[in-house]
Design brief:
By secondary structure, the protein is of the alpha+beta class. 30% of the residues lie in helices and 27% in strands. It has helices at residues 10-19, 51-60, 71-76, 78-83, 98-105, 107-116, 132-140, 165-179, 244-264, 298-301, 309-318, 393-406, 420-426; strands at residues 2-7, 27-32, 42-43, 65-68, 92-94, 124-128, 146-150, 159-162, 186-191, 196-204, 209-211, 216-217, 220-222, 226-229, 234-237, 271-280, 283-290, 332-339, 352-353, 363-366, 369-372, 375-378, 382-390.
Length: 427
């Protein structure tokens, strides 16, 4: 079949890489893609939020299966738009409609959803410009530290943790004053939970589900989890502290109530649900939902899936996921993200990347790259996700880090401690 992936990052390269391995994949397209996706698919120079252009590409290339990578088109309603096209009625789509995507598109919606369905999460209240004074007063009685979250999409930068009431009040004023644009029209003030975080991924066809391999990502720019948040500096799967007993709790207390809640509210959800979890005294709490796979977690989750990914995607879109047996490699996967100098603040693009051909037994998933005049250039903050698999966490870490040392471009940065905390945890 002919398949189209929407997106341009490491997540989409990982999807393209995995889908291209299937004998069921005839022709593969990525819109707009990057230098890495061009190695396994045909890039289409259209924006993934240009719904008319996406629909035209689906018609032109006789697409049978569409996979929506990023959150923005999902939240803006690309699935709804395509479903309204009479000639695209037979298109298989992996990704929720706009109502389902509100699990990610609105922090206020997701917190209310969790409350309605008894899903464990931190206590919270939501404030707007009209209730700013009430919010400021509420903060004076709040335990420290205090978590403030922009309600809408803020490119992964809409969560701020403050250590004093004065800082929290200033942050609330800034956020409601336009710091994150329309995404900050509402702000969720949340209890801080102390524990260890991980990500769980659920694939559902609206009724049936498969729990994919869990992962742990590393959000902060600096080693030892210091400095500002990024889109993700690395990831590991499996996660040593997510033992069988804990994952059973997650399934019973989080996954099943989430899917039952969607069904009760009449939301037909066909796609991925990313569940951001924190383990507190052995119990799972939900930090957030995403309506798609995470990045860079995808780059360690998909390499471990041994089941044909096209079969999985088709079953999801057709509502018969129960017929598929999910097979997962016992190996550990580690990815180290190599980023541009200055990221997550201002950074330069257009730097020549060299020595990709020297990588051995590692998969280089391209994130912010561009092919031009025979060179691969940097074209984003996060440039490459270098994924290694091995029979031990230590060996996977070593191979991924060696790859990060090998590739070269001006201003290259990466964290040298990806996975080391999990090695210490296991010890």
């Amino acid at each position: 079949m002919n398949i189209l992936i929407l997106g341009s990052g490491g997540r989409e390269h990982a999807f393209a890489w995995k889908l291209a391995q299937s004998p069921l994949c005839d022709t593969l397209f990525v819109a707009p893609g990057n230098a890495g996706t061009a190695l396994v698919a045909t890039n289409l120079t259209i924006g993934y939020s240009d719904f008319e252009a996406v629909a035209a590409a689906i018609r032109d290339h006789q697409i049978d299966l569409l996979i929506v990578g990023p959150e923005e088109p999902l939240v803006k309603g690309i699935v709804d738009f395509l479903r309204q096209q009479p000639d695209l009625a037979g298109l298989r789509i992996v990704g929720p409609d706009a109502e389902g995507a509100q699990l990610e598109g609105s922090k206020d919606f997701s917190k209310s959803f969790m409350a309605r369905h008894g899903i464990p999460t931190a206590a919270s209240q939501t404030f707007t410009t009209e209730t700013l004074d009430a919010g400021l007063a509420y903060l004076e009685t709040h335990t420290l530290p205090i978590v403030l979250k922009a309600d809408g999409l803020a490119a992964g930068k809409g969560v701020i943790i403050t250590d004093t009431v004065a800082e929290a009040q200033a942050t609330l004023r800034d956020m409601l004053g336009g710091k994150f644009g329309a995404a900050g029209n509402k702000v969720v003030v949340e209890q801080f939970l102390r524990g260890i975080e991980l990500s769980l991924f659920v694939l559902t066809d609206g009724t049936n589900y498969k729990i994919l391999p869990e992962a742990k990502d590393y959000k902060r720019i600096g080693e030892g989890d210091t400095g500002p948040n990024t889109g993700g500096m690395g990831a590991v799967s499996p996660v040593v502290f997510a033992n069988e007993s804990f994952l059973r709790k997650v399934e019973e207390k989080v996954v099943k109530p989430t899917l039952a809640g969607l069904q009760r509210e009449g939301i037909r959800y066909q796609g991925f649900i990313f569940v951001g979890l924190i383990k507190v005294n052995g119990e799972p709490y939900v930090i957030e939902y995403n309506a798609r796979m995470g990045d860079p977690e995808t780059e360690v989750v998909l390499p471990r899936i041994q089941t044909d990914l096209v079969e999985l995607m088709v079953a999801t879109a057709e509502g018969d996921l129960d017929r598929i047996t999910l097979q997962v490699s016992p190996q550990t996967a580690v990815t180290t993200v190599v980023v541009s100098g200055g990221y997550p603040d201002e950074y330069q693009k257009g730097k020549i990347i060299s020595d990709l051909d020297r990588l051995d037994d590692v998969t280089a998933f391209h994130a912010g790259t561009l092919a031009q005049n025979g060179h691969v250039l940097t074209n984003g903050g996060r440039v490459l996700a270098l994924t290694a698999q091995a029979n031990s966490l230590e060996n996977a870490v070593r191979k991924s880090q060696e790859a990060a040392r090998t590739v070269q471009f001006e201003g290259k940065q990466y964290r040298k401690d990806i996975g080391l905390d999990l090695i210490r945890y296991a010890d």
